[in-house]
Amino acid sequence: MGEIILPRRMFLWCMAVIYLTAFVSLYVQIPGLYGNEGLLPARWQLRYSGKTLGEQLLSSPTLLWLGPRLGLDTHTAMELLCLIGAALSLAATLLEAFRDSVVFFCLWALYLSMYQVGQVFLYFQWDNLLLETGFLCILVAPLTIIRGSRGVREHDRVTFWLLRWLLFRLMFASGVVKLTSRCPTWWGLTALTYHYETQCIPTQLAWFAHQLPVWWQKLSVVGTFVIEIAAPFLFFSPLRRLRLGAFYLQVLLQVLIILSGNYNFFNLLTITLCVSLLDDEHVNFWLRKADKTSSSDSRLWSWLSYLLELAVWSLMIFGTIICFDLQLDTTKKGISSRTAFTYHQFNQFLKTVTIPSIWIGVLSLTWEMVTAMFRCACVSGFLKRFCGTVQWTVFAAASAAMFTISLVPFSYIEYDSHARLWPAVRKSYDLVDRYQLVNSYGLFRRMTGVGGRPEVVIEGSNDGVTWTEIEFMYKPGNMSAPPPVVTPHQPRLDWQMWFAALGTHTQAPWFTSLMYRLLQGKRDGTHPHSAAVSFFSFFKNNQMYSFVFCCAVIELIQTDVSKYPFHEQPPAYLRAHRYKYWFTETMADGSYPQRWWRRVYDEEFYPTVHLGNTVLESMLNQFGLKDKSPPRRMSNTVVAQAVRWVRSQVRGVPTHMLIWTLVACSTTFCLLQGLRNRNKGTLLTHKAAVTVNDHTGKEADSSSDSFEKTDEQQAAEEEEEEGGGGGGGGEEDSEDEVEGAGGEEKDTVSDDAEGEEEDEIKVRKEKDESCRKRKF
Known about the structure:
Elements: H1 5-34, H2 53-59, H3 74-94, H4 101-118, H5 125-140, H6 156-180, H7 184-187, H8 192-198, H9 204-210, H10 214-230, H11 240-260, H12 266-274, H13 280-286, H14 299-323, E1 327-329, E2 334-336, H15 343-377, H16 382-410, H17 415-419, H18 423-432, E3 453-461, E4 468-470, H19 492-500, H20 509-519, H21 528-533, E5 539-540, E6 543-544, H22 546-557, E7 573-583, E8 597-609, H23 614-622, H24 638-650, H25 655-724, H26 729-775
Antiparallel strand pairs: 1-2, 3-4, 3-7, 5-6, 7-8
Main location: endoplasmic reticulum
Region (Disordered): 694-776
Organism: Lates calcarifer
């Protein structure tokens, strides 16, 4: 594999952007989800039982334990940690100096702190993936507190390889679990005929994708299996073009998912991991820059590489045709497909490839380690060689340890292979499991909503007779409302509403808390809307009234509280029904319908309740959702007041718009900075060229002056000789010899001057090239 300086810089920048979106998205939702009067207060997860700080961190590794020592309650401490994470990630996005291993360690620790108390609202696979990738950033990023460490390090390719292994585990497991789950839609290749309308938050393009013919949907499922199961093995190919082909296949799949569904930062994070398949040569190709590395491959090896690549792609195409029985269907003007293998055959295939895939990883990592070791041995200077060897030893050991413990979650896909792992490997995994260093993955295991997309609709009433639907900002509800685009923001309540609709309300205890908080809005006699408009007017004697927090819960439903149907007076009664939703179809004449959705009533999801209702009270007590502790006084420290001020500034702003603004401004700033640096480099190169030309002109003028002086001296000598009238032929001959010798000396001096000028020009060019490299 070629140099990975540019891909590593791209990866670290993308990770800074993803951290920024994750922290901002979570920060806006903290009051409603984890506030003292939120759905699942975070302070319930931290029990102060007299343990020391070290014991608390070991039992639950979160920085929120430091909150009381700073005079902050858990809610305010969570907001403070999110703000610090957002500020650090924004700084890392804008300034390369902040893309440091220490900064990425802080970002990882901050997000892990949120994860530990996040409960069901943070238990998503992309949160685990962000924590695992974030920890690898600590190994990949340079350590700028050590002088000169931002340059190329001999062990960089070893740590960068861990990203490729993570990408392989993610994609391979995601493809395998679709078939090991025995889901009939995946085995029947009909999953995408349901996916677009049953996914959590579809986009408008999902409606159009849903209208595609069935044969194309089935062929798309075949392509998904090829990209997720077969293509990941190309990540470790020694042939560069095979890795690049695998890169474009993965990016194609992720871009299509982004266009058709709102999966927050997950697909962007997957694309970021795909950067580990690139090298400097290909990035320079994107930038239209000439690659300075000369290829020394022989023509024979080039032809052999082409033949091997052709054989691999041909084998993948042939295997796809055989395994899925692809045939041209002239009657339907398409391609017919079906699964041509059984579950038993696939299980045998999985047993055959799981252990060999681990050994492929071992060999690939070993190769990177050996090549990095030889690079260290070739460094000039004993001290540099010694320091490089020490760094290689540390990072190679860390990479080997990360790879070893990752085998435990990876082997979950096949039981026999998992049972063959050494017990010591499992024990090592258990020791670090709480830190989310490695995780198991498997997305879209089963396709839900085959009989129609289940959707919970909450209704409120003031008299128990007239009911009004409470419409959420993102999830489907209003059949005429177009599907939104909110990527990379994740509205976590909307996501959990989607999961809750798949079962009963008893399987989602937080739903009872949601109903309770919405009913609580009638406390204190002031409606939540006024609390949203003038936030600070309701702080008196260091005490906050409860309706402010209820307003925070409402803002999870509608950022603009005025659009909430009960913003003037909270509902006296609440209930919830389950409906089945489907995308509408195009009209017979090919025109588009007026509505995006159609629905039918299914059943009651939650009974009618009101404050003091026995059913509601019993469920609150059953799930432990009623806080019996006395109300806590608010923190009034300078830090707490600053955190509340920041909250007042972002209140009422749609989260996805806030994230888009931050990312767009950061990206624009980085692009302008790059163009400015490029223009500076061009200007310096031009100045250097002008300086060289001036220097050459001055030397030419001085040499011409010396020549003119010599001619004048010669003319004066001739006049003196003619005027003297004496002298024989011997004197004339001697003068000619002197002149001839002087001419030879002049020629020699001129040649030396020209050689010195050429050497100086070469030195300047080399300096210019080194300057360009550093700036890029």
